[in-house]
Amino acid sequence: MTLFELERVYMDDCTLGTLSGPNGIVCNTVELAWRNNQVRVSCIRESTYQLVIGRSPKFGHCVRVTNVSGRSGIVFHAANNPQQERGKIELHGCIAPCMGVSILMDVVLGLQSTIAVKKFFALVSNYSLRGDVYLRVAESKAREGISI
User: Fold this and answer.
1) CA dihedral sign, ordered 137, 139, 145, 148
2) Which of 107, 106, 120, 92 is nearest to 28 (CA)?
């Protein structure tokens, strides 16, 4: 069994995270804000989920998050804008890996998301060959633990 950990910091209009694996930090993440697990407007709740390699009609080969209570179709995919209020909505409850985060004048953007998605996909694919892969989602114990 392999465990990845997503440590989050909840903000008013988005959720930022650090995704770590067995060998340390993999990347950052951006998600929607916490809105009580509402479909298409909230990030998923804190819990432990199994990750599987799958295929999405919209995103192709991807990492799927399974058994999310009250939700379906949760995947890791490339996106830059976690804030629903600002322009095009890119996330509908999914998780966007990114290589960094930019915060400028209250606008949060994930950076180099496509690179981070490929990196995470390769890791999960590799560990899946050895056994089950899981993701533990929890609030960060220390805000400074998030590398922005």
Assistant:
1) positive
2) 120
Do residues 6 and 136 make contact, with C-beta atoms less than 8 angstroms apart?
Answer: yes
Q: Which residues pair with 62 in a beta bridge?
A: 54
Of the candidates 72, 49, 52, the one whose C-alpha atom is nearest the C-alpha of residue 62 is 52
Nearest to 29 by CA among 48, 9, 13: 9
pTM above 0.85, yes or no: yes
CA distance 56 to 41: 20
In the predicted model, residues of the chain with pLDDT beneath 70 are 84-88, 142-148
At 49, the amino acid letter reads Y
Give me the amino acid identity at 145: G
- Computed from CA positions of residues 36, 121, 81, 147, in that sequence, does the dihedral angle turn out positive or negative? positive
Cβ-based neighbour number of residue 112 at 10 Å: 16
Residue 10: predicted pLDDT: 95
Give pLDDT tens digits for 42-78: 999 999 999 999 998 889 999 999 999 999 999 999 9
Q: H-helix or E-strand containing 96?
A: strand 96-98
